[in-house]
């Protein structure tokens, strides 16, 4: 019984330890991870920048240099720049955790957005596989961060370029609108208005020609009526003349016929007194009067003469106006036209007329593209230069290299160009001439060999190389103490505690000095022992050995050639001579009583003796300048390499050609662009800019000279020809108009002359008719008298015949004059018709000119309206464009806030990283509970079996009563273990108040279920029960998602995992942690499982001992 109690006690102790220990081990990791969180080791990162940069719109862009400069200022990681080979070796050796390589064409590909096939830029990074997952993850993060950072910079440049272009467009649009408004005003004032005036003047000319046509139409009608009257009169005269001729013939025929004189006279009287003859004579006289009156000038009546006179005056007026216009056109088309056009164009283009003088150069006309092309070519040629170090060419000049002076001048010009144009010029780029390069390669191998020898020297300090130096120091005896001291050379270190400084002497085998280091003064002190420097000792030579340490990254070929200068000082401290008291008073001299003793007989007071301070003598001993690699050894090796150098002439020539070609190309660019001859040995660049050195015939000068005069001279002739062409056409039209007017005036003058002649003829004819009438009247009277007399007929027959013949002759003359007047009238009518046709042609020409002028004016007005509409639209567009771009600039500088917003409109804020230790892991809780329950069930089953073997009366009790004690024990242990695990886990999970109580209840319930089920299986099924429990554990342990295993939901493994009871327990804990709604259902199921577990433990059945014994015997 006592043994059982002890075993039970051990069981309880082990169960408690297992519950508490496993819970602590599983959950204590959270606290440990929280404490160690954020202590990730800094990464050693090598940044290899091969980016050669690019030029965009005259601006140098090099993202590689920008990133390099930025990361070297950061302290989050250990950033270093290194060559590619060195960085790759460091990555292999573990010196670097991450290597980031920026390729040579990174900036060029990045800024290839305006090309036809833009290429994506790439950044290569390599991670050292050290096995440290945190370091590798951190390396991945840093690489991605830098890639994102470069993307942001590229976006900044893109948006900067786009906004700069839009701002330039905005300024250009405003200038375009202003120019358009100016040109519209000039067009309306100097083209549209004059065209309207010229058209109006031709309208006036047309009105005048219309009036002239109406006047000439009236004149033509009068002349036509006059001609008709003359024709009728002529016919009447001819009839009358024929009658006279017939009378004469009858008289001649009847001269021999003797008829009655009375009959003859009666017939004659009847013939002479007929109404027709009188009427014809009266009509002839009326016509003559009307013709005469028509050709007289009377103010009250518009006779033909008056109308012709008005036409002449009107033609004179028109001729004067046309002559004035012709004189004005002739004046403008004279010799001064070209000069006037040139002066007007000069004033207008140069802005003299507006009061804002300006200049125009070829560079302005080409929008600076000519300069940009030359500058781009010069900058590209400068970037192809292999060497930027002037000392290389100065040495080449000393060596007598061909054209080395030209190369040096080109390099000076390139430096001045980069300085004046704010170019990023790297002065550190140095490359030897091809022959020197081969020598340098050999010397580099020599330097590497020497560096390896130094690295081979053993060093006791990690990260440092050691280089020992020794020197001899002469020690002289002295009266006082001696001390040697020195400072550590620059870039070297001497560490304490490792005997880095030692001094020894063959004359004194033992230690001769004490060595110390003063950190405040940064000096090493060697205090020589007094016994070896005493005056009684002899001088001796001591050997001073110093171990100098240098950082591994500082060990370079140039470093080992630097002199190692150590200033060694000796300090001798000599103590002062002891001070003797004052000499006693001379006994021969009398003493005065009271002076030798003090008052009251006291001893005299002696002043204290103050010793003199020790004497310190400091002298510089110095140490011979030492070298890790002596200069004479380097020079000797160089001469050896030169003497052994075996290279072909072709290879050297090709290398030399490749080396010097960019210098000749750049020299030619400077000669063409600036006119500067780089081969000039006396080229002086000091104190002057390249623009000041530019010659008159250089492209730079030609591009920047004012070209307004040349432009005006070039276009003056064309403009003059254009103006002269229009003025010539206009002058031709004016000349034609003057010709027609002159012709009309001449016709009018001819008409006037003919009218005058006709007037004179009409007057003469009128007089003749009047005279004829008088004669006829007289003849009639004579005939009447003859008739009355009747007796004298025969006598007067001869006279009658003679008178008749005379009358016929007079009528013949009158008839001739009438015919002549009729012909003149027809001629006048034809002349008037020609004048009318001339006026009609003038009127038609005026109409054509007016129609052309109206068309031109209409087109000009339409063009003016269109220009006004276009100006309004452009102003609206300029206003809208200005509104869009108004926040792109702040004053005259770009709006950096807008650029930042466009390049990164959405920012990300990284929250606290949730580490694995911070997350709730029910996986561990389930494992702890199940393991503790398995152990508890095994122990209870074993104890029960052992108890049954010792209890002989168990079968006499009921089955439930037999299992009640063990069941109560199982339930109690499960509750205790659940409380322990729940309390420890709640503590580490930082649960309080209601959550703590709920958590405790869940864990206690889980442990109760686990312990009762495990105890039942092990009690009832034993080995099979253990198998079932381990299967349940394996199903959960190897298939849970908590270990990062991803299983397809449709696979068999997913089905097996869904059958695991422990998976449901884990889901319960997850639901509780996430405050899901389904955890209560699982909780109720767990309560049901607990009830079932308690119930089945009450009915565990075992075979009797005899059956068990038989089984054991059979076994």
TrEMBL record:
Comp. bias (Pro residues): 605-614
Biased composition (Low complexity): 575-593
Range of residues in the leader sequence: 1-25
Keyword Mitochondrion: no
Keyword presence, Transferase: no
Localization, UniProt: Cell membrane
GO cellular component: plasma membrane
Domain of life assignment: Bacteria
Membrane topology term: Multi-pass membrane protein
Disordered: annotated span: 575-618
Keywords, in A-Z order: Cell membrane, Membrane, Signal, Transmembrane, Transmembrane helix, Virulence
TM spans (from-to): 920-941, 966-989, 995-1018, 1025-1045, 1079-1100
Subunit structure: Homodimer. Interacts with EssB.
UniProt similarity note: Belongs to the EsaA family.
Protein name as it appears in the record: Type VII secretion system accessory factor EsaA
Species annotation: Listeria booriae
Upper classification of the organism: Bacteria, Bacillati, Bacillota, Bacilli, Bacillales
Underlying gene: esaA
């Amino acid at each position: 019984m006592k043994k059982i109690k002890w075993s039970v006690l051990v069981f309880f102790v082990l169960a408690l330890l297992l519950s508490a220990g496993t819970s602590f081990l599983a959950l204590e990791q959270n606290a440990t991870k929280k404490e160690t969180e954020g202590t990730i080791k800094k990464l050693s990162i090598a940044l290899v920048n091969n980016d050669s940069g690019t030029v965009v719109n005259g601006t140098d862009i090099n993202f590689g240099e920008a990133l390099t400069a930025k990361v070297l200022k950061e302290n989050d990681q250990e950033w270093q720049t290194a060559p590619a080979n060195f960085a790759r070796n460091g990555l292999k050796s573990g010196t670097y955790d991450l290597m980031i390589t920026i390729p040579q064409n990174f900036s060029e590909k990045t800024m290839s957005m305006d090309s036809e096939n833009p290429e994506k830029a790439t950044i290569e990074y390599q991670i050292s596989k050290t096995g440290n997952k945190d370091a590798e993850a951190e390396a991945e993060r840093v690489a991605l961060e830098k890639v994102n950072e470069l993307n942001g910079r590229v976006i900044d440049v893109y948006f900067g370029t786009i906004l700069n272009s839009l701002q330039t467009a905005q300024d250009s649009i405003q200038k375009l609108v202003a120019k358009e408004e100016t040109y519209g005003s000039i067009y309306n004032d100097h083209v549209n208005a004059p065209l309207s005036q010229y058209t109006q003047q031709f309208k006036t000319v047309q009105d005048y020609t219309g009036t002239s046509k109406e006047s000439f139409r009236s004149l033509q009608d009068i002349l036509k009526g006059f001609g008709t009257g003359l024709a009728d009169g002529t016919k009447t005269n001819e009839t009358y003349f024929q009658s006279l001729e017939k009378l004469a013939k009858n008289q001649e025929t009847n001269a021999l016929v003797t008829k009655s004189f009375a009959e003859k006279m009666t017939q004659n009287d009847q013939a002479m007194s007929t109404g027709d003859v009188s009427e014809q004579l009266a009509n002839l006289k009326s016509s003559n009067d009307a013709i005469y009156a028509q050709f007289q000038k009377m103010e009250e009546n518009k006779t033909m003469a008056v109308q012709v006179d008005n036409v002449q005056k009107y033609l004179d007026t028109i001729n004067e106006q046309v002559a004035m216009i012709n004189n004005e056109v002739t004046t403008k088309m004279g010799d001064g036209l070209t000069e006037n056009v040139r002066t007007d164009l000069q004033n207008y283009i140069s802005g003299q007329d507006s009061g804002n003088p300006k200049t125009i150069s070829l560079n302005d006309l080409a929008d600076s593209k000519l300069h940009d092309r030359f500058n781009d070519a010069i900058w590209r040629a400068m970037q192809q230069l292999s060497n930027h170090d002037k000392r290389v060419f100065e040495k080449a000049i000393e060596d007598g290299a061909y054209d080395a002076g030209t190369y040096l001048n080109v390099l000076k010009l390139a430096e001045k160009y980069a300085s004046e144009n704010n170019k990023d010029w790297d002065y550190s780029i140095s490359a030897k001439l091809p022959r020197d390069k081969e020598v340098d390669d050999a010397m580099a191998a020599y330097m590497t060999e020497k560096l390896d020898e130094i690295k081979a020297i053993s060093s006791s300090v990690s990260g440092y190389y050691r280089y020992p130096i020794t020197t001899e120091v002469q020690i002289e005896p002295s009266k006082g103490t001696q001390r040697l001291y020195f400072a550590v050379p620059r870039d070297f270190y001497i560490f304490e505690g490792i005997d880095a400084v030692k001094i020894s002497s063959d004359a004194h085998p033992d230690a001769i000095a004490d060595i110390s280091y003063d950190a405040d003064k940064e000096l090493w002190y060697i205090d020589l022992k007094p016994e070896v420097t005493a005056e009684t000792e002899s001088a001796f030579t001591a050997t001073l050995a110093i171990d100098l340490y240098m950082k591994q990254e500082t060990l370079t070929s140039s470093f080992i050639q630097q002199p190692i200068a150590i200033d060694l000082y000796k300090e001798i401290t000599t103590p002062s001579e002891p001070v003797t008291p004052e000499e006693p008073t001379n006994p021969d001299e009398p003493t005065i009583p009271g002076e030798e003793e003090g008052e009251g007989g006291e001893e005299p007071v002696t002043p204290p003796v103050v010793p003199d301070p020790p004497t310190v003598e400091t002298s510089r001993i110095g140490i011979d300048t030492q070298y890790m690699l002596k200069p004479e050894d380097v020079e000797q090796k160089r001469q050896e390499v030169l003497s052994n150098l075996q290279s072909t002439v072709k290879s050297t020539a090709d290398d030399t050609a490749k080396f010097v070609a960019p210098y000749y190309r750049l020299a030619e660019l400077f000669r063409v662009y600036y006119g500067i001859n780089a081969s000039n040995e006396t080229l002086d660049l000091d104190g002057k800019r390249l623009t000041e050195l530019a010659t008159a015939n250089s492209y730079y000068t030609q591009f920047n000279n004012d070209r307004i005069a040349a432009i005006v001279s070039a276009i003056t002739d064309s403009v003059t020809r254009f103006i002269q062409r229009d003025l010539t056409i206009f002058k031709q039209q004016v000349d034609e108009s003057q010709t027609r007017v002159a012709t009309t005036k001449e016709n009018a003058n001819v008409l006037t002359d003919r009218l005058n002649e006709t007037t004179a003829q009409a007057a003469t004819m009128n007089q003749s008719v009047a005279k004829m009438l008088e004669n006829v009247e007289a003849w009639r009277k004579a005939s009447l008298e003859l008739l009355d007399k009747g007796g004298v007929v025969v006598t007067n027959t001869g006279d009658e015949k003679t008178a008749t013949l005379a009358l016929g002759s007079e009528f013949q003359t009158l008839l001739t004059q009438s015919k002549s007047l009729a012909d003149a009238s027809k001629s006048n009518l034809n002349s008037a018709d020609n004048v009318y046709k001339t006026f009609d042609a003038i009127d038609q020409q005026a109409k054509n000119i007016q129609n052309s002028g109206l068309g031109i004016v209409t087109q000009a007005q339409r063009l003016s309206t269109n220009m006004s509409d276009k100006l309004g639209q452009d102003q609206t567009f300029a206003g809208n464009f200005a509104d869009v771009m108004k926040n792109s600039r702040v004053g005259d500088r770009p709006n950096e806030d807008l650029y930042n917003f466009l390049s990164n409109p959405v920012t990300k804020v990284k929250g606290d990283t949730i580490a694995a230790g911070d997350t709730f892991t029910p996986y561990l809780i389930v494992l702890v509970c199940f393991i503790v329950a398995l152990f508890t069930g095994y122990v209870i089953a074993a104890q029960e079996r052992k108890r049954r073997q010792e209890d002989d009366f168990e079968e006499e009790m009921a089955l439930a009563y037999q299992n009640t004690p063990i069941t109560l024990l199982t339930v109690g242990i499960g509750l205790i273990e659940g409380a322990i695990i729940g309390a420890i886990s709640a503590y580490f999970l930082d649960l309080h108040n209601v959550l703590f109580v709920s958590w405790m209840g869940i864990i206690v319930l889980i442990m109760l279920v686990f312990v009762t089920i495990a105890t039942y299986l092990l009690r009832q099924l034993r080995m099979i029960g253990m198998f079932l429990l381990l299967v349940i554990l394996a199903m959960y342990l190897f298939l849970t998602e908590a270990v990062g295993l991803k299983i397809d939901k449709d696979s068999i493994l997913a089905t097996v995992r869904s059958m695991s009871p422990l998976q449901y327990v884990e889901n319960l804990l997850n639901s509780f942690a996430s405050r899901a709604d389904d955890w209560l259902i699982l909780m109720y199921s767990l309560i049901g499982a607990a009830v079932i577990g308690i119930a089945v433990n009450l009915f565990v059945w075992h075979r009797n001992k005899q059956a068990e014994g038989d089984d054991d015997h059979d076994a």
